[in-house]
Amino acid sequence: MFDTLSDRLQEALGDVRSRGKLTEDDINKAMRQVRLALLEADVNFKVVKQFTGAVKDRALGADVLESLNPGQQVVKIVSDELTQLMGGSGRDLVFARGGPTVILMAGLQGSGKTTACGKLARHLREEKKLDVAVAACDLQRPAAVDQLVKVGAQAGASVYEQGTARSPVDVAEWALGQAKADRRDVLIVDTAGRLHVDESLMSELSEVKKRTKPHNVLLVLDAMTGQDAVNVAEAFAGATAFDGVILSKLDGDARGGAALSVKA
To answer: What pTM, to 2 d.p., does this model score?
Structure first.
């Protein structure tokens, strides 16, 4: 996913890499090229501005400009800042000591939540040896329940569904009760895709969270969302703070902008 961006950054830093002496003007020219490379990768412009600003501040330090290999130092600073951008604090999924671990899946329409539910269920069943169930709470999209039944069966997970007559909040609460009664290890709650400007559906998502008290909330993002990933993440964080992000459809986007934007 980052191959194209890596090539563009290598190209942008090609001139300063081999220089034995650097001026502030050299640094400014290099940062313009880095900025273009990141924007072409569809990284959010605010993230780009913060990133290039941090690199420039460090690169203009006396310890860099007066070093024996200032060009190599600048390249290392870019590498360090990218690592910091993608790194930082993180955690694995939290698992409950007793009773089912609840994982709430949220995201935009068409982001691939239902498919992600199946893949996560299969991973937890095969890699963690856990008994997994999925709850069909996407009652907005036609045939969403049927899709989850099929995906769940393929993943070897039990599927809790009550059709489309009840409210998603009630179905989620009922599914949690079933998971407890059946002594499941994990319950993955599939919710309806929503626009981040849809206040009623965002409120519904918040209510599902209140009723199920999930141990993990995962935001599913389409990798092709690009720099709008920041706006999406901020909107969902306002409605229900999420603990992690699943990027879907990575094979359809070679730029990596969504990953860098949402992580920042």
So the answer is: 0.77
